[in-house]
Structure formats: C-alpha cells, structure tokens
Amino acid sequence: MIALRQAQPVPTLQNNLPSQPDDAPEQCPGTDSDQAGKADACAGCPNQPVCATAPKGPDPDLPLVKARMETVRRKILVLSGKGGVGKSTFTAQLAWAMAADEDCQTAIMDVDICGPSIPTIMGLEGETVHSSSSGWSPVYVSDNLGVMSIGFMLPSRSDAVIWRGPKKNGLIKQFLKDVDWGDLDYLLVDTPPGTSDEHLSVVQYLKESGIDGAVVITTPQEVALQDVRKEIDFCQKVGIRVLGVVENMSGFVCPSCHGRSEIFAPSTGGAERLAKETGLELLGKVPLDPRIGKASDFGLNFLEEHPDSPATTAYLDIIKRIRTILGDD
Predict the structure, then answer these.
(1) pLDDT, tens digit, for every residue of 269-328?
(2) pLDDT tens digits, residue range 252-263?
(3) pLDDT tens readout for residues 112-163
(4) How confident is the model at residue 173 (pLDDT cuts 50, 70, 90)?
(5) Are 201 and 55 in contact (CB under 8 A)?
(6) Is 92 helix (H, G, I), strand (E, B) or coil?
(7) Which region, left, alpha or beta, applies to residue 244 given φ > 0 means left and ψ of -120 to 50 means alpha?
(8) For residues 245-257, b (16+ Cβ closer than 10 Å) or e, as one string?
(9) Which of 129, 135, 235, 254 is deepest in the core (most CB within 10 A)?
C-alpha cells in the first residue's frame, strides 16, 4: 500500500546521500544505518517498514560481485526517468553495433524486472537460462553478444512479475555475481523508468567495480524532459558520470521520400536545451522510423536490415561518439 498523502506531512529536504530516500524526514539516519526504520525520526515516514526490515551493514556479496566484474572492461547504464522513450531499443542497437566487431565481446543485462522487453527485441523470446559449475550462462544472440533477463525465466510472456524491492534487488545481485559473463568489453545495463529500487541496486552493487557512465534517453516533449531531469539529478547524487543525452523519436522521416515532420514537438527546446541547461553533451537525435518498431517486434537488427535509414546513421554516429568519450575509438 502506497501512502499518497498525510494529514501532517513529514518535513522533507533535498537529500544528498543515496542512502536517504527523497521523501525521508529531515533527521533520516540513512538506509544503511542500524537505526534505519527504528529511530524517532522514522515515525510517520512511508519508508519505515522497508527500512526496518532491510539487511544492515556491508553486503557480504559485494566482494563476489567485484570478483565477477573484474573481467568486464566497460559497464554502461542506459537510463531515463520516463517510460516509453526507447531505452531498450537504444540498448539493443548499441549492443548490435558494438558486436558488429567480432573481436568485441558485448552483453546486455536487462534489469527491467517488471517489463523485460530485451528478449523480444533481440530475437530471443522463448529461450531459457542454463546453469553450470561456473554460474548462469547468458543467452547468446551471436558468439560475441550475450543477454541476461528475467524474461528468460518466466513461464509465459504474459506472466506479471509482482515483486517488492527486496526480491528485485536479489535478482539483480544474482545477475551480477552468479552469471558467467566471461571476458567482456562492454556490459550494457538496460534499466526501467524512474530512480527507484533497480537503479539504486545497480549503483550499490557496482560501487566497488565502477560504472563507466550512463547514457540518458529522452524524447523531445516537455512531459518526458521533466522526468529525465530527475534522472540526471539521480546520477549526480549517486556519482554516476553521464556520458550524454540522446533525443529519441526526434521527428519523423518518411522511408519513401525522406521528408521530415515533427511528431513530438520540442515545445521547450527538447534535448538540445536540456543538455545546455545541465552542461551535458547532446550525443545526437534519432528520428522516428516505423521500421524500428517492426524490427524490434521480430527481433531483427535494425542497423543491418536498414543501413540506408537516417535513424541508422544517427544511431551509428551516437555510438561512435560514446566510444570516443570512453577513449575506445
């Protein structure tokens, strides 16, 4: 049950520590404290039941996560505070573009627990996860492109995952410490919308291993930008380097005549203005192409299927820029 409003609101502040929820009271001891959920300041806080029952102190599995991640060279998060802006689609194109180099070992970790779409987009629907003495094995699209997702573990694609935070966190930890990722050049983490359990878990578990950066996805309209600003603020608070912003669905380009029209108008300046306001780099703008959706539905590599699309050119330019920022070009 979610508390939406209280008769006597608990005083709140802008927290600077990741261990303090944004809706916490002023004297919040932090979720890592032994007094979490028990201190006098916790009375009336909507997070009190979760904080009181959550494990305290250093996570004993963090060294295991660090050991597993030692063979992963780059870890990149794909984020957006808004849903439906194309995070999973972008993650897939990024993975396919990197894996086009047969010497580049790439993998996707899908932490969108309640809405895993990566198996469908990557053409892996119906596949299952296998385990061995070395851990869970990713499902492979090709010899150098692996995927791990809860979507491989569901009895049916229509089964709902109705989990609270602790179970979500537990699965993400398993993905990081129990999956035999092998030697990877890039691990791309596809995340759900928002700044909640899944995001905090990834940051916490990869704290010692290090996150190389995040790519923030938005669409041009202000209703998306509002939530994307929150995501950027989240990254700043938890110390994640933002590699840049991508404006997805940036105009529509007709596949026949290549004429352009605005579907989602950038009424407040779109990602370009957002990047200037936040001091971030605008990595590029990807136009709408109806063939992107069709390719995703059928698990096809859009970049390979439609090399002449303006969207393909935009994707490849953005991916090249990401490599340059990371020093991998």
Answers:
(1) 999 999 999 999 999 999 999 999 999 999 999 999 999 999 999 999 999 999 999 999
(2) 877 777 777 888
(3) 999 999 999 999 999 999 988 889 999 999 999 999 999 999 988 889 999 9
(4) very high
(5) no
(6) helix
(7) left
(8) bbbbbbbbbeeee
(9) 235
Nearest C-alpha neighbor of 100 from the set 287, 319, 283, 252:
319
- How many helices and strands (H and E) does the chain possess? 11, 12
Taking only the tens place, the pLDDT of each residue in 75-97 is 999 999 999 999 999 999 999 99
Give per-residue pLDDT as tens, 227-267: 999 999 999 999 999 999 999 999 887 777 777 788 888 88
Which tokens is 23 given? 């809706």
Residue 137's SS3 state is strand
- Residue 184 identity (one-letter amino acid): L
Cβ–Cβ < 8 Å for 276, 113? no
Q: Say if CB 173 and CB 65 are below 8 A apart.
A: yes
Residue 259: phi and psi, rounded to 5, are -70, 150
Alpha-carbon distance of 73 to 127, in angstroms, equals: 27
The answer to whether the beta carbons of residues 188 and 106 sit under 8 Å apart is yes
What does the alpha-carbon distance between residue 93 and residue 103 come to, in Å, rounded to a whole number? 17
Cα angle: 146, vertex 192, 301; to 5 degrees: 40
Per the CB < 8 A criterion, the answer to whether 284 and 250 are in contact is: no
- For residue 131, the cross-strand partners are 136
Largest CA distance in the chain: 66
Phi, psi angles (nearest 5°) of residue 148:
-130, 130
Cα distance between residue 156 and residue 98, in whole Å: 30
Q: What are phi and psi of 267, to 5 degrees?
A: -60, -25
288 φ/ψ sector (left φ>0, alpha ψ -120 to 50, else beta): beta
pLDDT above 50 for 15? no
Q: Are 235 and 207 in contact (CB under 8 A)?
A: no
Q: Measuring CA to CA, how many Å separate 138 from each of 106, 124, 175, 182, 198?
A: 11, 11, 10, 10, 20
